[in-house]
Amino acid sequence: MTLYKELQLRVMWVNEHYRESEWKIHYISDPDTIFWFVLSGKKRVQIDGACYDLKCGDFVVRPPFCSIKTLEGDPEDATHFHYLVLRCELRVSHFQFVKLYGFPPVQYFGDFPDLSHFHDLWKHLIRLWEERYIHKIETVSNYKRQLKPLLALNTEQTADVLGFYAVFYQWFSMMLMYSRHNIKQALTIDERIQRVSDYIWTHLHAELTPTTIANHFFISESYLRLLFRSSMDVSLMKYVRQSRHQHAQYLLLTTEKSVREIASQVGFEDQSKFSRAFKHKEGMSPREYRKASREI
Question: Which CATH class is domain 3-179?
């Protein structure tokens, strides 16, 4: 698979936050990739079950559908928690970029020699976003905001968008360089696996079994199972279940579709069976999951 053809980068929003010492979060999983850079203060957090004590200079990477919540810290620490945040859609084809590269949830960036430039790029992105793009934001849920620009598409607006992404690509490139010692350096995805993944994601509503998938690609079922596990380090059917669940999460958080409609779109003819499977995975029903996202 050719990375430059399949890499998808889209900024959802970028901001700077000053939080009070008692600030707490208990986020359910999110469909986008979120980056934080801690400028001051401390905060103990739990990311996908693992605990981290965040401090100035820490760079935090939250993959899509990764849960996070704050934990009780030092009661005498009354400092504000100051951080930069950037949220984006970041994928290589249907694969999650930060999981593909094995990004650790927390890295220390504080001792990099060109850190001030990285910080300046992030602040520049925030200024550009505020100046050019915050014309009107319509909240679909607290996890997915759709930008509703009031301007018609024209050369000036196109130049603004390109200018914003020129800065973002500099930021992204520098972030990768800072992370290079902590992430995978050689990535290969078998093109056959990419085609299988594409097929799965475009047929989540249909019957997907090792037999039906293997027949579609005119290969043996046993070879398909072996190829998929060796390339993806997960079984074929577990990948199908994960894909269906993630797409259901995405639809619950970003659309007003009914649970019945969503169940059908991810391959469940029986809504109650879908709800049971979802609750087993998330610890709450689809309706509770949607409601919780809007109360945060």
Answer: mainly beta
pLDDT tens figures, 3-46:
567 888 999 889 999 998 788 877 666 788 999 999 999 999 99
Give tens-digit pLDDT for 216-239.
Answer: 999 999 999 988 888 777 899 999
The whole-angstrom separation of Cα 70 and Cα 41 is: 14
| Weakest-pLDDT range from 29-43, 182-196, 265-279 | 182-196
Q: E-assigned strands of the chain?
A: 7-19, 26-27, 33-40, 43-47, 50-54, 58-62, 68-70, 81-92, 95-96, 106-108, 137-141, 144-147
CA–CA gap between residue 201 and residue 158 (Å, rounded): 31
Look at residue 144 in the predicted model and tell me its pLDDT. 45
Domain boundaries, the chain: 3-179, 191-295
CB 14 within 8 A of CB 85: yes
| Residue 233 backbone dihedrals phi, psi, to 5 degrees | 55, 30
- Between CA 62 and CA 98 the distance in angstroms is 8
Residue 249 is given by DSSP the state H
Fold designation for 191-295: Arc Repressor Mutant, subunit A (1.10.10)
Q: DSSP letter string over 256-290? A: ---HHHHHHHTT-S-HHHHHHHHHHHHSS-HHHHH
